[in-house]
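[Meeting: bench + compute handoff]

Bench side (C.D.) handed over the final construct sequence. Compute side (W.E.) agreed to return the predicted structure before the next meeting so the bench team could plan truncations. Sequence as handed over:
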Amino acid sequence: MVMVVAGLVLLPSPLGAEAAGFPDVSSSMPSYDAIQFLTGADVISGFPDGTFKPADTLKRGQATKVLVLWKGLTPSNSGPTFTDLDSIYSAYVRTAATQGWITGYEDGTFRPYSTLSRQQMAIIMVRAMGWDADAGKLSSSQIASVLAAFTDEPDIASVARPYVALAVQRGLFGGIGDGRFDPKSGITRAQFCMVVFRAELSLLSVPQAIRFAGDYEDKTRVVVDLSRKPGTVTAAVSADGLLTVDYTGGGVAGVVSQACGTPEVDSVAIRQLKYDPRTVRVTVDLARYQRFRVMSLAPSDGKGYRIVIDVYRRLTGPLGAGPPLICVDPGHGGEDSGAIGITGTLEKDLNLAISLLLAEDLKAAGLKVIMTREDDSYPTLQGRADMANEALANLFVSIHNNAAGDPDANGTETFYWGTPDNYSVEGKLLAEAIQRNLLAEIGSIDRGARTHWRNLVVLAETCMPAALAEVGFVTNAAEEAKLKTPEYQQAAALGVAKGVLEYLKWSTTVYTTES
């Protein structure tokens, strides 16, 4: 097995060339992803004229407000106060002061409309991240070693030095491009967003790399390496071949995309799906496949937290892309009414009603479906088998209802091809899965999964695993009454669908291991 490792390459956002529609923020700017993320999360906003003004410097009051919003705190007018606060910033400043992030000046003022310097921002961010004690533990030599990277290191105030050193050490701050830290200059809105965004990502589960391998005997494996443990991981799939894996507690800059080009997986893309709660979506563009398995794994074997997606190879069925194809056959139809119930209910109508619901359930699960009939028509028995064979369907499922001369006869049974001594092994497995799940959903009497005493055409002439379900007896008063209700028909359809999914080992359950 060869695992191809792809570093995360950031692509332009699907929102367009300007972050959140700001004409003065282009996708080529280093702050682009940070601005897009924070404006999307409603942490910071633009101006009434539609611009963001990334080069403008932030005032102390503005920065404090944004940090309180970023941390999700409710502004309060209790706690420390300052003599120069107005109604615009008072609650935000007092809330931040209560948290210990900011302090005022010796004269009792806060100066909310003064420019916030870069070194002041370093102090505030370290405190807001809860790293104050860590900054205090840095030795003089450690501080000097970190700050030696900046030619203007002597200009950093002594009180700010441990905070700046820690903020640089933990990746929140860098220089301004000419070897200087520029501690006393005002921090721009773009710089501020980059610092807060880096802090945000340090708290979230961030995709680090995409790895994939298509040389397994039976599957393609996709691995998304994460920086830390994700929150809740869920999976869903659509019949058009898109598998989405969402996890909370996650963040990602921009959009990450990686081509795979294996028989089972075309590509993988990762983007921020939601901001509240922070949710990342991994989209796997599936090619030809049989089923998949999603796992959220704790660190092991030298690897960190990761999401592993196994997409299994399909060797039969339609040659095109997509999941397995299920042929659903509503029994009888047209001039062939099938059995007639004691109150005149026609079996063909019940079969069609349940089959249409079954088709929708299978499609909702992400499978492809064809039907031998969708109305009150009558395809011949051989025509039904031919339709499934020509479409190269993976499974054939026929829906019927029973009749007997004994009005007390009742229950559910499911048939597969063969005799007790010579039968379709896969057909038996399919029939048993359908029978088991049908009983669980409708609670009827178990008449078993077995071969039929006649060589039924739709089971004998189909080239794929096939099963024929007899949901109930229309000649039994109690069962006929239930079969006529939409609720019972839906339950029957769901039971058959669950049987199909069980047979295919088709599941969107995410398997997890604990750290």
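W.E. noted at the follow-up: Confidence is low (pLDDT under 50) at residues 9-18. C.D. will use this when planning the next construct.
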